Amino acid sequence: MDYAKRLNKSRKFRSHSCSDKILLWNMVGMQGTRLAGMVGGRVFMKGLIVGRKYGGVWVRRAVCCRGEVGGRKRGKGGGRGEEGKVEINHPKVMGTGVRMDEGWVGEGGAEFGGGVWVWWRGEGGTGGGIKEEIDGITGRRKKDGGRPRVMWWGEGEGKRVDELKRKVMGRGIMKEWNWKRREELSGEGGGEE
């Protein structure tokens, strides 16, 4: 069965961005209908490479960490966490400095300054947005070293992730796969890779 199609049939929840789709894959796997019968379990991405102009903090928040509602911590060096009964895959994230663009955008090369400005326009684009300066090395707010609200919780984002989790659990998708059996079949163990 194609889990992504089953989850997205609802009119209440529609995935509108690539990061929403990758977050979904990090919850239910990437295998889809055609591979499900052949692979013996869920298929997860082990790594993700981001371009030189995109920060690792952003990609981790977008594709996996925002799914950890309730403060569940990841294991050392990434790995798969579990929030309630929904297992969230945390791929290794690597940035590349390789120039992949030929146009004017890349002429001067990327600048890796200490600060990154991020913002969220607010629920439904009605204003009331948040903006913060984030330390590009630590991923924390430059002003006080705290956890950035924008990177971890955009307004309404928690509701969207909660809705995704309810749909995953409500349709019995997670119950169909045995996590330990998947590790036995693939020869993988937990911990660092």
From TrEMBL:
Molecular function GO labels: adenosine deaminase activity; RNA binding
InterPro entries in alphabetical order: A_deamin (IPR002466)
Pfam family, one: A_deamin
Residue ranges constituting the A to I editase domain according to the UniProt record: 1-140
GO BP field: RNA processing
Signal peptide span: none
Name of the molecule in the record: A to I editase domain-containing protein
Organism of derivation: Triparma columacea
